[in-house]
Amino acid sequence: MKTYMAHDKDVVRKWYVVDAEGVALGRLASQVAAILRGKNKPTFTPNVDTGDFVIIVNSDKVVLTGKKLEKKFYRYHTGYIGGLKSVQYKTLMATKSDVAVYEAVKGMLPKNSLGRKMLTKLRVYKGAEHNQQAQKPETLKLI
Fold first, then answer.
1. For the whole model, what pTM was predicted?
2. Residue 142: partners with Cβ closer than 8 Å, 6 or more residues away
3. Which of these, 52, 100, 140, 141, has the minimum number of CB atoms within 10 Å of its CB?
């Protein structure tokens, strides 16, 4: 039995639009990460970027379940000594909801050069408008 191994030149990519209104952040991030990796295709190869492009709109309407808005923190480091900063998700979702969605998807991709390449195919917008109409994206319904 032969095993199919995809190559970069064989990959056909599509563009998808995902409406994040009313969707839980973790569920959205895990399903978008699978599409960015290409796990929804029969030609999935772990060491090749076979994924599609994803546009996420309405990131400001993503919900967090439970008490995560008050108890969960987004932490980052400035690079200076003692520069660890933390922001409560309540304020992060109010001011930079696109960053919260982007970081959630980033955390579910591989932590190597291939994961960074996959992350370049993600676009996140706060509102319902996006700039990729020329690519004729398909609407994708999440489970």
1. 0.93
2. 18, 23, 27, 28, 31
3. 141
Domain-located, residue 24:
yes
Does residue 126 fall inside a structural domain? yes
Find the angle CA(101)-CA(73)-CA(117) to the nearest 5 degrees. 35
The set of residues, in sequence order, having a beta carbon less than 8 Å from that of 57 and lying 6+ positions away, is: 17, 18, 19, 20, 125, 127, 128, 129, 130
Contacts of 87 (CB under 8 A, 6+ apart): 73, 74, 75
Which amino acid, one-letter code, is at 132?
A: Q
Contact status, residue 32 vs residue 54, Cβ threshold 8 Å = yes
pLDDT tens column, 79-96:
999 999 999 999 999 999
pLDDT tens column, 11-57: 999 999 999 999 999 999 999 999 999 999 999 999 999 999 999 99
Look at residue 86 and tell me if it is in a domain. Answer: no
pLDDT digits 0-9 by tens, 121-132: 999 999 999 999
What is the span of the domain harbouring residue 42? 14-64+96-140
Residue 78 included in any domain: no
**Residue among 86, 76, 100 nearest 26 (CA):** 100
